[in-house]
Structures are given as C-alpha cells and as structure tokens.
Predict the 3D structure of the following.
Amino acid sequence: METYDTAIVGAGFGGLAAGAQLTKMGYKVALFEASNELGGSAGKYERGGYRFQSGATLGMGFEEEGVFHSLYQTLGLKPPPMTLLNPIMDIHLPDRTIHYYRDRHQWYEEIDRQFPDVKEKVKAFYDEVFYVGAMVDRLVHQLPIFPPRTVKDWAGLFPLMNVPSVKMMPFLTQTIYRRLQKFGLHRHSLFITFLNGELMDSVQTNVERCPAFLGYAALQTFHKGAYAVQGGLATIAEQLAEYMKRQGNDVFMRHPIYEVSQAGDLFNLKSKREKVFRSEQVIMNNSVHNLHHTLFPRLARQSYVRKEKEQSREAWGAFIIHAGVKEEVFANTESLYHQFIDPANPEGLHDGGQFLLSLSRPEDSFMAPEGMRSLTLSTHTDIAQWWMRENYESNKQLMTDRLISIVNHYFPGFAEGLDLVLPGTPVTFQKWLKRHDGKVGGYAPTGKFSWLNSYSVRTGIPRLHQCGDTVFPGAGTLGVTLSGLMAAKLISQD
Ligand SMILES: Cc1cc2nc3c(=O)[nH]c(=O)nc-3n(C[C@H](O)[C@H](O)[C@H](O)COP(=O)(O)OP(=O)(O)OC[C@H]3O[C@@H](n4cnc5c(N)ncnc54)[C@H](O)[C@@H]3O)c2cc1C
C-alpha cells in the first residue's frame, strides 16, 4: 500500500489550493473528494443542458498580485477566460437601484448620486476602507498562522508587528458601526442598509457585529476585481485538480473519508468499501463542523476544537434556487449580478430579506443552451427550520415563490421565463457537500472581538491540519484558498 506525504480530505477550494501548492513543492499528495464534483460550495453540477454553480458565483483574487493570480503564476497555469465586472452588481432597493462599481472613481460618482446629503462622509469612510483593507491584505498575504498556537506561530507573527500593523489597532478593536459613528453615518438608514447588504454577502454579518478590519478587507476586495469566470468557478477547481494529476499526484473522486485514525507515525484514512489509505500528514478541508464526525474519537479529543463549543457557534445555512431563464428577460441589463434588499423585511438580511441573483454570461456556452441563461438565487437562511420535516416541502415552496416573485417585481416576465427550477436548502448542502446540518459560509462574526475565536489551521493534533471557510481568515473562495496555502506552508515548515 502506498504511503502519501499528505492526504487531503475534501476538494473544496481550500483543499485544492493546499493540494496544488504541495504538489508544486514536490510532495506526494492524495486528495479525497466525497462527491463526483470538484470545488465543494464553489463547484457545479449539470442538469437538463445547464451548468449550475453549487454556491459561489463571484470570482475574486484574479487581479495582478491577487491570491489566485499569484497561485496560478507559482503553478505555471493560465487562468480561464473571465469577465472583469464593472459594475460588480446592481443593488435593487424598493425606491432605487444602486450601481455598485468596481472602479473607485465611478463608485465615488455613484456615491454622489445615491447619498448626496452625506456624500463627503461616505467617501471619507471609503478612503478608510481602502487604506485599512490594503494593510490587512499585506498582513494576510504573508500567511501568518492565526490565532497563534505555538511559540513558532508567535515567532511568525512577531515580524508583522511593525508600525503599519500598530496603526491597525483601532480596526482590530472596533466594529464597523463604531467607525460609522466616527464619520457621523451611524444613523443614515440608506447607507447602513446598503452596507449591511454588502457585509452580509461577504462576511455573513451586519455593521453592528462586524469587526472593522474584517469588514473593510471584504469591502475593498470587491473593488480590486470581481470576475465572472467562464464555466463558473468550478473551472478553477478543475484546473487545480488537473495540475495535481499531471504532476503525478492522486485525486480520488467519490471517495468519502469516513474515519481518520492514527497508527504510530502514520494516519489511516478509511474510505469506501473499507479501503484504507496511509499518510504522514493530513489536511481536513471538510469543515470544522465535521471534524469530530470524521476523526476517530481518541484522536478528536486531542484537538483544540471542542465539540460542544463548536456546535454552539453561529453559522448560517443557504437557501438556493438554480434555474434556466430565457435570455430576453434580462435583455435590458448588462449586469450579471443583482442583489435585492428589502429594508422593511422583519427577518432582516436573511431568508429573502437580502439575496443575490447571479446570471451566466449570454455567450458562456458552458452554462446554458442557446437563448437561455443559467441562474442562481441565494439567500442566507436560519438552519433549524429546515430540519423540521413536517413543514419542509411547504417552506421550500414558500421561499421559492417568495424569491421568484421579488425578482419578477423588478424584472417583469421573470417567472414565466424560467425553466427547470431547482430549489436547495441546508438539507441539500448536507446531502451533497456533507456540510454538517447544512451550515455553510463559516462562522458569522458576532462582535468586535469575535475574530479572536477563529480556528487556526492547526488542529492541535500534530501533523493533522485543517483549512476552509471555518478556519481563519474565513469564508469566500479567497479566504479558504489562503487557509489552504497556510496549511501547505505549515506542512513545508514542519
Ligand atoms: C450560496 C453560497 C454562495 C457563495 N457565494 C460566493 C461567491 O460568490 N464568491 C466567493 O468567493 N465565495 C462564495 N461563497 C463562499 C465559498 O463558496 C466558500 O467559502 C468556499 O467555497 C468554501 O470552500 P472550502 O474549502 O471551505 O470547502 P467546501 O466548499 O465546503 O468543500 C468541502 C469539500 O469536501 C467534501 N467532503 C466533505 N466531507 C468529506 C469527506 N468525509 N471525505 C471526502 N470529501 C468530503 C465535500 O463534498 C466538498 O466538496 C458562497 C457560498 C455559498 C454557500
């Protein structure tokens, strides 16, 4: 039986980034994926002539010096064709549409139009966003192991504690709401509605609960470059897996790992039909929610991750609709991404109060048959309601009707133009992506110091690491790719 240097559980973007990077470094790697698709929450499936994106639709980090740009350069790969979005999306509110431009100059002009009474304050706020966001980028791109768990991790952080990082202190110790107070914007309901929508979409929380540095980093990322990738983000996942295979490493599809245990210096990974694989190191990319369900109990008890504490942490689920739609329904808009926010929604920013519509490019023949486009509607959802079986089907129908009717209000003809409507709930995410209880998108920040509760790539078990959206720096294909690279760095250092 072959023994691998590193086994990776889960071919999400975290696992793929770690696998590709370790492959480049010359490690013998095996990547195990439970499903028959790569990319996890940023993957795809195909049905009825369409390609549907399982979750993520907006690509980030492909600009010069961006995370994927650098990774592709390291690997010597050519990125797939993609469209740089400007505007990134149109944000539909009952009384207006905000064009959210990537280009800073155009965005500041849009601020003049949308927030004329406070335009200088909003621009000053955005100046701060860009300034702090750039500092956070510089720190995170050095792949610090955070939160530090060992003397070596602390030693790695020490050189980063220089003058610029000291300047970050206020943003590490305040929420976005606190910063808005400083700018006199904390009572401006339109601007707060807008910001809450963008923060929910990127950091899974609102201005009151979002640590300033995290929110700023997310907000400025939109302006560095958001992309619609040809064939969807799954194309990236496929390229990374292909790279691993071409270099002689193994990617095992339909290979759920049921149990990871330790035997002497090696780990045993039990897969289907009781097949066992051996490896010296392991990276878990199947989310911290699943850690205790995958590790042999004696091994799991060595971890820093306390089962009860982990289970009590706030995380969202996603309600999602995939469908085809006739091209003519969106003939009057060039934007591929549309966000709908209902400031009066009693539920707040989830369960339809805020949701995103992503459309495939008309000319992207990977995604839909001619004359049609593939679309995704997605909203955050409270998980518990979906595990009450008696209301499941009726709740699913209600939410489907609700989202479709809202889009139909802004784009008349939408409901009639639909083809093959496929709703998905946290139950679907558990079934297909093995996310425990259907939790996706990592942990929702709950206050100014919530980032200190992050899980690091270290699990506390020597030579067994973790990456993905439940690990620092958190969700989004960018964040999980960084954590995958951090895990690879850790392995190369140990
Ligand atoms: C609805 C939605 C919309 C989103 N939109 C965006 C967006 O537009 N842009 C963006 O950047 N991000 C977006 N995100 C976030 C982004 O998709 C995720 O943060 C990221 O893809 C998570 O990657 P991950 O590495 O944590 O792994 P995951 O995507 O969770 O993948 C884990 C993989 O592990 C596999 N697996 C699980 N258990 C096992 C096992 N025991 N053995 C083997 N394999 C296993 C799963 O099948 C899965 O393929 C969105 C997320 C959702 C849910």
Summary: Residues 103-219 form one domain. The chain has three domains: 3-57+232-312+444-493, 103-219, 316-438. The mean pLDDT is 94.
